[in-house]
Amino acid sequence: MAKPEIYVSTDVEADGPIPGPHSMLSFASAAYTAEKELVGTFSANLETLPEASAHPDTQAWWEQNLAAWETCRQDLQPPQQAMQQYLQWLKQLPGKPVFVGYPASYDFMFVYWYLMKFTGESPFSHSALDIKSYAMAVLKTPFRETAKRKMPQHWFDPLPHTHVALDDAIEQGALFCNILQENLK
Question: Which SUPFAM superfamilies has this protein been placed in (predicted)?
């Protein structure tokens, strides 16, 4: 019997638009079954890359979100250590990990780059599932018109979106599972 898919809702906080020149400051994942069972979470705050620097626009955004900034700058870990721990966490999940993000293109770019740089592998392969794209297909709306404010309210659990990676990973994972459950009926 094939292992079930485990949907790994992941959120990244960074100091710029791309990895390498900029650092991933914090990331978190919430692993869900298709039935919306939360089977585990992982989060880490990272030291910045020695060769990287903050992008001015992103730094200005952080200055407007000081509580989230302060949270992601606590208990810092070296990226190599955090990514090794994350890889082991992913491998112990009770199924095949599927990366889920909102937007997946941004979050996956950072996580994939860090996994490859610091562990040499990615259990996600080269793939990520984008919640907005999935919602677009379900709602049959144009991509640019598919925004959270236009999605059915019953897709959203009463969970906070705080720009703290773990909060956002849990919230977005619940959103994905609600859309999935509605469309598997």
Answer: Ribonuclease H-like
The catalytic residues are: 163
Angle at CA of residue 131, ends 122 and 4, nearest 5°: 55
- DSSP letters for 105-168: HHHHHHHHHHHHHHTS--TTTT--EEHHHHHHHHHT--GGG--GGGS-GGG--S----S-HHHH
Domain ranges, residue 81: 5-183
Q: Is the CB of residue 17 less than 8 Å from the CB of residue 111?
A: no
Give which of 134, 77, 81, 128 is closest to 107, Cα–Cα: 128
Provide the edge-to-edge strand list for the sheet that holds 129-130.
76-77, 38-46, 24-32, 5-14, 96-101, 129-130
- pLDDT tens for the chain, residues 1 to 185: 788 999 999 999 999 999 999 999 999 999 999 999 999 999 999 999 999 999 999 999 999 999 999 999 999 999 999 999 999 999 999 999 999 999 999 999 999 999 999 999 999 999 999 999 999 999 999 999 999 999 999 999 999 999 999 999 999 999 999 999 999 87
CATH classification at residue 122:
3.30.420.10
Please report how the helices 131-139 and 165-183 are oriented relative to each other, as an axis angle in degrees rounded to 10: 30
How many separate domains does the chain show?
1
